Amino acid sequence: MSAAETPDVRVRRGEPTADELAAVVAVVTEAYQREADEALAEPEPRPSAWQVSARALRQPLRREIGWGRFGG
Protein backbone atom coordinates (compact mmCIF):
# COMPACT_ATOMS: atom_id res chain seq x y z
CA MET A 1 0.00 0.00 0.00
CA SER A 2 1.42 3.41 -0.90
CA ALA A 3 1.23 6.47 1.31
CA ALA A 4 -1.73 7.76 -0.69
CA GLU A 5 -3.65 4.50 -0.10
CA THR A 6 -2.98 4.30 3.64
CA PRO A 7 -6.29 4.41 5.50
CA ASP A 8 -6.86 7.11 8.09
CA VAL A 9 -8.06 5.38 11.27
CA ARG A 10 -9.10 7.41 14.30
CA VAL A 11 -9.90 5.71 17.58
CA ARG A 12 -12.48 7.65 19.57
CA ARG A 13 -12.78 5.39 22.58
CA GLY A 14 -10.66 2.69 24.17
CA GLU A 15 -7.14 1.64 23.41
CA PRO A 16 -7.06 -1.06 20.72
CA THR A 17 -3.85 -2.96 20.09
CA ALA A 18 -2.03 -2.80 16.78
CA ASP A 19 -3.32 -6.29 15.95
CA GLU A 20 -6.92 -5.25 16.63
CA LEU A 21 -6.57 -2.19 14.41
CA ALA A 22 -4.99 -4.27 11.66
CA ALA A 23 -7.88 -6.75 11.83
CA VAL A 24 -10.48 -3.97 11.61
CA VAL A 25 -8.72 -2.33 8.68
CA ALA A 26 -8.42 -5.66 6.84
CA VAL A 27 -12.11 -6.52 7.31
CA VAL A 28 -13.37 -3.08 6.37
CA THR A 29 -11.05 -2.86 3.36
CA GLU A 30 -12.20 -6.22 2.01
CA ALA A 31 -15.87 -5.38 2.56
CA TYR A 32 -15.40 -2.05 0.79
CA GLN A 33 -13.59 -3.71 -2.12
CA ARG A 34 -16.36 -6.31 -2.54
CA GLU A 35 -19.03 -3.63 -2.53
CA ALA A 36 -17.10 -1.50 -5.01
CA ASP A 37 -16.62 -4.49 -7.35
CA GLU A 38 -20.32 -5.36 -7.26
CA ALA A 39 -21.49 -1.76 -7.62
CA LEU A 40 -20.26 -1.31 -11.17
CA ALA A 41 -23.17 -0.40 -13.37
CA GLU A 42 -23.66 -2.13 -16.68
CA PRO A 43 -23.06 0.25 -19.57
CA GLU A 44 -26.25 1.27 -21.28
CA PRO A 45 -26.55 -0.15 -24.79
CA ARG A 46 -25.82 2.45 -27.41
CA PRO A 47 -28.46 3.00 -30.08
CA SER A 48 -27.58 1.70 -33.51
CA ALA A 49 -26.87 4.07 -36.39
CA TRP A 50 -30.30 3.19 -37.78
CA GLN A 51 -32.05 4.16 -34.56
CA VAL A 52 -30.19 7.45 -34.41
CA SER A 53 -30.89 8.44 -38.01
CA ALA A 54 -34.40 7.00 -38.51
CA ARG A 55 -37.27 9.43 -38.29
CA ALA A 56 -40.32 8.57 -36.28
CA LEU A 57 -42.87 6.72 -38.37
CA ARG A 58 -45.90 8.69 -39.40
CA GLN A 59 -49.38 7.52 -38.46
CA PRO A 60 -51.39 6.19 -41.42
CA LEU A 61 -53.70 8.66 -43.10
CA ARG A 62 -57.29 8.57 -41.92
CA ARG A 63 -59.21 8.24 -45.16
CA GLU A 64 -62.62 8.72 -43.49
CA ILE A 65 -61.76 12.34 -42.69
CA GLY A 66 -61.91 14.43 -45.83
CA TRP A 67 -59.36 16.93 -46.99
CA GLY A 68 -60.25 20.17 -45.28
CA ARG A 69 -63.55 21.72 -46.38
CA PHE A 70 -63.66 19.63 -49.50
CA GLY A 71 -64.28 16.40 -47.57
CA GLY A 72 -67.93 16.20 -48.41
Report on this structure:
The termini are far apart. It contains 2 helices and no strands. It has a domain at 1-38. With 72 residues, the chain is mostly helical.
List the helices and strands and how they pair.
Layout: H1 18-38, H2 49-53
Keywords:
72 residues, mainly alpha
Order of helices and strands: HH
Number of strands: 0
Average pLDDT level:
80
Shape: rod-shaped
Number of distinct helices: 2
Poorly predicted runs of 5 or more residues: none
Largest sheet: none
- Kindly estimate the percentage of residues that lie in beta strands according to DSSP: under 5%
First CA to last CA: what distance? 85 Å
Radius of gyration, CA atoms, in whole angstroms: 32 Å
Helix- and strand-based class? mainly alpha
Helix content: 25-40%
Structure in a nutshell:
With 72 residues, this protein is mostly helical.
